[in-house]
Amino acid sequence: MTTPIVRLPVRPEHAGIEPYGAPQLDVPVLLNVNENPYPPGEDVVATIAADVASAARSLNRYPDRDFSALRADLVEYLAGESGVRLSPERLWAANGSNEVMLQILQAFGGPGRTALSFAPTYSMYPEYARDTSTRWVVGRRAEDFSLDLEHVRRTIAAERPAVILLASPNNPTGTALPTAVVEAVCEAALEVHAAGTDGAPAVVVVDEAYGEFRRAGTPSALELLDRYPHLAVSRTMSKAFALAGARVGYLAASAELVDALRVVRLPYHLSAVTQAVARAALAHAPALLAQVEALRVERDATVGWLRSQRSAAAGGAALQVADSDANFVLFGSFDDRHAVWQGLLDHGVLIRETGPDGWLRVSIGTPEEMRAFKDALVEVAGL
Ligand SMILES: *Cc1c(COP(=O)(O)O)cnc(C)c1O
Asked: Best of 74, 95, 103, 124 to mutate for ligand 1, by most ligand atoms within 8 A of CB?
C-alpha cells in the first residue's frame, strides 16, 4: 500500500518555515551557543545522580506542580546573588527560560495584542510572538547597541505593546541596560494603555539569561521588582550555571504576574527529575559558578585582543568589537562574514553567524579554546 498524499493544515504563518536552531556540528572547538565550557565537577555530578535516584523512587506520582522546594531554593540563590530577597510566590520556573518567556506571551499576548523589542536582539522573541498569534514589532538599538530612550518611548506610545522584551545583557551584542533605562521603560509602559487590553500597561520582561556575567557595578533589574508589578526578570541555569542540558529557566516578578503564568502552564510542566537536578545544582551554586570569574576575565581579554587587530577581511580596518557584559563577544565588520565563519569551521572552530550584517559572535571558552579561535582567526581573516 502506498502512503496517500495529504496536505496538512499547517498554519499559514508556519508554512515553509525552517525550525530555529544553531548548527549542532561535531567539531573540536564549540563556541557558538554561549554554553559554559566547564562541565559540572564530580561532586556536583554525584549529588545530581543521588537526588535523581531518589526522585526516581516516586516517578509513579506526578511531581509537585508548584515546585515549592525549588522556589524556596531560588529565593535563597537570588538573595545571595543580587541581594534581593523575594517571597516564593514571586518565583516561577519552567523548562528553560525560553519556556518561561513563551508562557509570558501565552498569558499576556495573543490576537489583537503586540509584543515589542529592539534589534539586534535574541532571535527567539519573534517566534514566541508568532506562535501565540501576537503582533510583533521591533524597534532599533543605537549604533553602540544601547537603547535610545527617546526612540523607545515613541515606539511604546505608537505601538501600545502588551509585552516588551529586553535582553540585558543583550544577545548577540553583550550590552547591559543601566537600571535607569529599565526604570524609564517601566515608567513609559505605565503611561500607555496596551492595545487589546482594558487599559493595562505592558508587561516589561528583562531577560537576564547572562546576568551572572555582568561586569562589577552593573546592577540587576531584580532591584526594581518591588516598585513595578508589571516588571518580570527572567533568568536561566543554562549559561553561568553550566546546566544547559538540564533545561531550567526561571523568573521573578510580582505574585499577580506569576499567577497569570500558572493559568497557561501545562499540567506538571516541570518534571520531578528536572526539579531534582535544579535543586542539586543550586545546592552546589558556588562550585558551578566558580568559573564565571575566569570566563569574565577571558571575555575582557578577548575584547581587548580583538580591538587591537586589523583585518584584511574587514577591508584592512581595525576590528569593531561591542562592549560585553555576557560570555560572548560580537565583532566585525567583515566584507563576507560567511567566508570568515566557514574558514574558522574549516579550522575546527565553530562560532555563530548572527547579529548585524558583517558581524560574528564568539562564545567565551577555555583558554585553550580561545587560543584555537585566535590562531584560526589570524589565518582566516588576515589579521
Ligand atoms: C541562551 C538564552 C536564553 C536561555 O535559554 P534557556 O531556554 O534558558 O536555555 C534566554 N535568553 C537569551 C537572550 C539567551 O541568549
From this structure: 124
Ligand 1 binding pocket mutation candidate from 236, 243, 269, 354 (most atoms within 8 A of CB): 236
pTM score above 0.90 = yes
Name the residue with cell 526522585: 55
CA 310 to ligand 1 center in whole angstroms:
32
pLDDT digits (tens, 9 = 90+) for 25-53: 999 999 999 999 999 999 999 999 999 99
- Say if residues 203 and 109 touch (Cβ distance below 8 Å): no
Q: How far apart are CA 50 and CA 63, in angstroms?
A: 17
Grid cell, residue 287, equals 562550585
Q: CA-to-CA distance for 130 and 125, rounded, in angstroms?
A: 9
All three cell numbers of 328, joined, read 560572548
- For the stretch 233-279, pLDDT in tens is 999 999 999 999 999 999 999 999 999 999 999 999 999 999 999 99
The average pLDDT across 50-79 equals 98
CB 248 within 8 A of CB 237: yes
Can you list the domains of the chain with their CATH numbers? Answer: 20-39+289-381 (3.90.1150.10), 42-283 (3.40.640.10)
* Contacts for 295 with CB less than 8 Å, ≥ 6 apart: 36, 37, 213, 327, 364
Helices (H) and strands (E) in the chain, counts: 12, 12
Q: How far is the CA of 173 from the centre of ligand 1 (A)?
A: 14
Quote the Cα angle for 125-90-186, to 5°: 55
Q: Which residue from 192, 377, 237, 203 is spatially nearest to 302, judged by alpha carbons?
A: 377
CA distance 104 to 161: 13
CA 208/CA 227 separation, integer angstroms:
18
Give the integer Cα–Cα distance in Å for 208 and 218. 12
Nearest CA-CA partner of 351 in 121, 210, 127, 172: 172
Task: Categorize the per-residue pLDDT at 4 as very low, low, confident or very high, splitting at 50, 70 and 90.
Answer: confident
Residue 2: pLDDT band by 50, 70, 90 thresholds? confident
